Amino acid sequence: MIKKCLFPVAGYGTRFLPATKSMPKEMLPVVNKPLVQYGVEEALAAGLNEICLVTGRGKRAIHDFFDTSYELEHQIAGTDKEQYLSSIKNVIAQAKFATTRQSEIKGLGDAILTGELLVGNEPFGVILADDLCVADDQGVMAQLVEIYRRTKCSVIAIQEVDDADISKFGVVDGTEDEPGLYTVTDMVEKPESADAPSNLAIIGRYVLTPYIFEILRHTPPGKNSEVQLTDALLTMARTSKVLAWKFKGQRFDCGSVDGYVEATNYVYENIYLKNKNP
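Above: the chain sequence. Below: its structure as tokens.
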């Protein structure tokens, strides 16, 4: 049974400077909730209630957010403003939080390896809060967990992307075992479109077995001189098995300004207003 979900939240968020000079990018609000809360809610909906945060310098706001704010709650107690804290209070009540710090920003692979201290020797989910995912029925992480429980293999979420955008993603190739589910045979980090093995791009949702830690320990720096999770997953695919799932739902790249604005508009029109005016 998977209980833990790892959140690598140590990045600088340079594409949102100067806003992220003193505020973690994961705390950027999409309407009335920060990005990281959407991710934690997705993990909880998948049954993962042990939240492991790999943070860095200047990320204290994330720790404080997932804690009780006695002064604020006292000030608004008994007023109509109390309702605005209900969603985060529900999250805090359901989840357990643990944190460790990535001392240097050396890539997603290094961030995952740093999280071994919190995860231990068990399968776990990974959510990149930059990728805001919405689905009508079952969340993306829940979809991956369901596949893992059936196959006991590492599973990554993928989507089809245009050739013009392929260089922004890790890209997989594989054999389609059943509709939407692939056994990975190749994987490349941010290739040029001419070199991409397919148009199936990895997005920020994974379920991984603890074997990934041993592989990451021996994975040299790759693209941009960083330890790439994509390189480690390719090694795993060649030595055991990695599955890729063409998830059902919609993903917004909130690591870019355009994607963040698109996500805000979507959430406001399709989620916030509907919940406000049922």
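The mean pLDDT is 92.
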